[in-house]
Amino acid sequence: MQGKVALVLGVANKWSIAYAIAQAFIREGAQVILTYQGERQKQTVEELAAELKASLTLPCDVTQDAQLDALANELKGRGTVLNAVVHSIAFANREDLSRPFVETSRAGFALAQDVSAYSLVAVARATASLMAAPGEGGGSIMTLTYLGSTRVVEHYNVMGVAKASLEASVRYLAADLGGSNIRVNAISAGAVKTTSARGIRDFTKMLEGGAKLAPLRRNTDPAEVADTAVFLASDLGRGVTGNVIYVDAGVQIMGFALPALTP
Ligand code: NAP
Known about the structure:
Blueprint: E1 5-9, H1 17-27, E2 31-36, H2 39-52, E3 56-59, H3 65-77, E4 84-87, H4 106-127, E5 139-145, H5 157-177, E6 182-189, H6 203-213, H7 222-233, E7 244-247, H8 258-261
Parallel strand pairs: 1-2, 1-4, 2-3, 4-5, 5-6, 6-7
Bound molecules: NADP nicotinamide-adenine-dinucleotide phosphate.
C-alpha cells in the first residue's frame, strides 16, 4: 500500500476493529487519516493517531450530512486523493439488543439503520469524488458486517436487520460506482470483544460458543480482519467488488456442532 491514502472511520480505542485496520494499513506503507465522532472522542483519537503515526484526524459524525460535507471539503482543500475508505461504524440502542426483536421500537429501528447502514451510502457519496481516477487505480470502499444479517443470532436483533441493509447497500453502491473504478465490499468479521460488541447481551457466551463451533476452533483475531482489509484496499483486490468476505474462523459454514451445544 506504499503511496496509498486511506480514510478510516470508526476508531474508538485500541480494541476497535478499525484500529487494527489502520495499524495494518500503516504497516503496509499507507498514509492513514482517522475520524472521530465528536468532541468527546477527539483527544482519545488524536492520541491513538499519534501512536499509530496516522497523518491526520478530522471530526465526522456520520449521521450529520454537514459534517460529511465538511470532511470532504477539508480533504479536497488539502488536495488529498483517497485510495481507500473504511467504514467501521454501527450503533443500536442497548435495549434493542436485549429484548425480543418483535418489541423493537420504530425509533430504535430507524436509528440502527441510519447509523449502521445508511451512513455507508452517505460516506460513499461524500468521498467518491475524492478517489483516485479510474486509470490510476480508482478506489476501494469497505465496511464491516456480521453473520446476523442472514442468520438469526440471538440478541443481535435490530443490528442483524441493519447489517442486511448494509450488505444490500454494498451491492447497489458497487454497481453505481464501478464505472469510476471504485470497488465496494464488506468484511463479515467473526465476534471480537470491542466496546460495541459488549452492548450485545451474553456476548461472552457468543465468543465461547463461537470458538467451539468454528472450523478453526478459535475466535477471530482483529489482525486477520485487518489483513483482509489490506487485500481489499490494495491492488491485489482490484477485481473484487460487491462482495461480503467472511473472516470468521469459518463459523458461517456451520449448521451446528455438538461440542458447541454442550456446556
Ligand atoms: P467499536 O470499537 O465500538 O467501533 C464502533 C465505532 O462506531 C466507534 O468508533 C463509534 O464511535 C462509531 N460510531 C458510532 N456512531 C457513530 C456516528 N454517528 N458517527 C461516527 N462514528 C460513529 O466496535 P467494533 O466492534 O470495532 O465495530 C466496528 C464495526 O465492526 C461495526 O460496524 C460492527 O458492527 C462491526 N463488527 C463487529 C464485530 C464484533 O464482534 N466486534 C463483528 C462483526 C462486525 P464512538 O465510540 O465515538 O461512539
